[in-house]
Design brief:
Arc Repressor Mutant, subunit A; mainly alpha; DNA-binding transcription factor activity; about 0% strand; transcription; 2 domains; elongated; 12 helices; DNA-binding
């Protein structure tokens, strides 16, 4: 990290070199969770996304190192919120394919109260069920278009993606993509053999 950033925060890298750092607190967990998220998914970011992600990492690092005054302003709070929201969305998306996924289970995994997760999503204009549905539909669309899954029926793909009812899957898919799963397969040429 450039020395100029430390100066901005009123910190000296030399002073930090011998200081014990808290690697158990919420700021550290947030920083490392966001870093893991970027490692797993960062390759798909465009230049603007990379720049924004870099700024979030810098701000989260500053919070962890104790540079509250230089980092915690409106932008810092927004960076923390966005990082936490990304972690919430990622955790929901990873568990969305389990038909038994629940807000409580996801919140427990994140170490947050369920209400906090709901509030964060609501602030972003989303609900838990919307994020779950979007993740399931994205995966179903990928499977429907991928020749690797051509031997699976639409119903099999729906069940693999966490849907318990094929007719509700069809309705949700059509509403999201303005095409039926079967029509999408026909267009892509990934229809299972008879």
């Amino acid at each position: 990290m450039p020395n100029a950033i430390f100066r901005e925060w009123g910190l000296s890298p030399v002073d930090l070199a011998c200081r014990p750092l808290d690697c158990t607190g919420a700021d550290y967990q947030l920083l490392t969770g966001y870093a893991r998220l970027l490692i797993a998914n960062g390759a798909g970011l465009d230049e603007g996304g990379v720049a924004e992600a870099t700024q979030h990492l810098i701000k989260l690092t500053g919070r962890w190192l104790g540079a509250r005054d230089g980092v915690q302003g409106v932008d810092g709070e927004e960076a923390v919120y966005r990082a936490r929201l990304a972690l919430v969305r990622q955790t929901i998306s990873k568990q969305a394919f389990d038909p038994e996924v629940s807000l409580e289970r996801v919140a427990r995994r994140l170490g947050m109260p369920s209400r906090t997760v709901q509030h964060m999503l609501a602030k972003a204009g989303e609900s838990f069920s919307q994020v779950v549905m979007a993740a399931r539909l994205r995966r179903a669309r990928v499977h429907l278009l991928d020749p690797v899954y051509a031997d699976l029926s639409v119903a099999d793909i729906a069940f693999r993606c966490g849907f318990l009812d094929v007719s509700s899957f069809y309705r949700a898919f059509r509403a999201a993509y303005n095409v039926t799963p079967k029509s999408l397969r026909e267009q892509a040429g990934t229809i299972p053999p008879e």
